[in-house]
Amino acid sequence: MGGTRRIDPANCSVARALSVVGERWSLLIVREAIDGVTRFNDFRDRLGIAGNLLAARLDSLVAAGVLLRVPYREPGTRQRYEYRLTGRGLDLRPTLLALLEWGDRYLADPEGPSVVVRHHSADDEHACEEPVRISLECAAGHRDLPPSAIHRTPGPGARFVDST
Amino acid sequence: MGGTRRIDPANCSVARALSVVGERWSLLIVREAIDGVTRFNDFRDRLGIAGNLLAARLDSLVAAGVLLRVPYREPGTRQRYEYRLTGRGLDLRPTLLALLEWGDRYLADPEGPSVVVRHHSADDEHACEEPVRISLECAAGHRDLPPSAIHRTPGPGARFVDST
DNA sequence: CTCCTAGGTTTACTTTTTCAACTCAGGCGC
DNA sequence: GCGCCTGAGTTGAAAAAGTAAACCTAGGAG
C-alpha cells in the first residue's frame, strides 16, 4: 500500500465553482444578468427556461451570493422582487468570456461571432471600444502564455489521495 | 409592433460552448484529461462518475473534437482505447482557470487553494514557476481590465430579436 | 480451458428537467 | 366593490438524465 500521492480531484475549486454555476442554465442566467436583466419574466422570455426551474436557479444563485434579491416598486404597481448581479456574479465575466472565446473559435456561426466584447469605461479616458480577450499571465510578468505553458501544483489547502 | 432590437441570446457562442462542455461532469473530465488522464477506469476512479455516464460523456467529447479516441496496446494485453486531449481540449484551459480563480476567491477551502497553476516551459528560458492568472486585455493594449470595463456588442454573425 | 483485467454495457431505480396549466396579490377602470 | 390584468411565481404529470451495481467481453497468462 501507499503508492504515489496526487492531489485529490474532488477537493478543487473548479469542482466547487461548478457545484454553484455548473448546472444547466446557471451560467446563461448569469450572462443575462450581466447583460442587465433583473426580472423573472425577462429571464424566462430571453432564455426560454421553464418557470419552476428558473425559480430554483435564481434561488440557488441568490444562496450562492451571485445574485441579490431586491424589492422594488414601479409606480402604480405593487412591490416585486428583482435579481441583481453582485460582485461575485460580475467576477464570473472572465469565465463567460473564456467560454465565449472557445465557442467563437470552434463552434462559431459561419458568419462570424454574434457577440464581440469590447473595452469601454465610464470615464472617456480609457474608452477605446477595442475587442477584449482573455490572456494568461504569470506573477513574474510573462504574458500571453500558451495553454501548454502552465501546470497544476499543490497549493496550501491541497489534500492527497493514494494512487495505485 | 417592432420595439427595440437586441442580440438574440440563443445565437451565442457561450450557449454553443455550454452545449458541448456544459453538462455535468464534462468540464471535470476535461480537467482530468489536462492533468494527463487518458483511460476509462482512471477517469472513473478519480471522479467517481458512473460508468455509463462516463461512456456517454467521453463519446460526446470525442464527437465534439475535445478528446480523441486512440487505440493503444500495452505489452502483454490486447488492444484498448484511450482518450487523448486535442488542441480544442487544451484550449479549454483558460475556461477552467477562470473557474478555478472564481472558486478560489469565493469558495476556497479555509486552508487556501488546493491547486495553484504555475508557469513553466519545456525550455528553461521561460520557466519561472510563478502562479498564473487570467487577465482581460483589449486589442489596444489596455491590460488587466476590471470586469466592469467590458460590454457586449453585436458581431458579424449577430441575429436580433424584437423586444417589447 | 479457466481465470484475470480494462473497458465498457445493461438493468433497475432515483432525481432533474420540461411543459403547460394554475395560483396569487395588488392596482386599475368602472 | 367587482371583475380584469399583470408580473411573479407554484403545481403536477411526463420525459430525460443521473446513479449504483451487476454483468459482459476479448485476449493473454497460467
List keywords for this structure.
homodimer, 164 residues, alpha+beta, two-stranded antiparallel sheet, two-stranded antiparallel ribbon, 7 strands, 35% helix, globular, DNA-binding
Describe the protein in words:
- 2 copies of one chain form a homodimer.
- Chain A has about 160 residues and is an alpha+beta fold.
- Chain A has helices spanning about 15-20, 25-35, 40-45, 50-65, 85-90, 95-105; strands spanning about 5, 65-75, 80-85, 115-120, 130-140, 150-155, 160-164.
- Chain A has a two-stranded antiparallel sheet with strand order 1-7.
- In chain A, strand 2 and strand 3 (about 80-85) form a beta hairpin.
- Chain A is globular, with a radius of gyration of 20 Å.
- Strand 4 of chain A pairs antiparallel with strand 6 (about 150-155) of chain B, so a sheet runs across the interface.
- The first copy, chain A, binds a DNA duplex (30 and 30 nucleotides) through helix 3, helix 4 and strand 3.
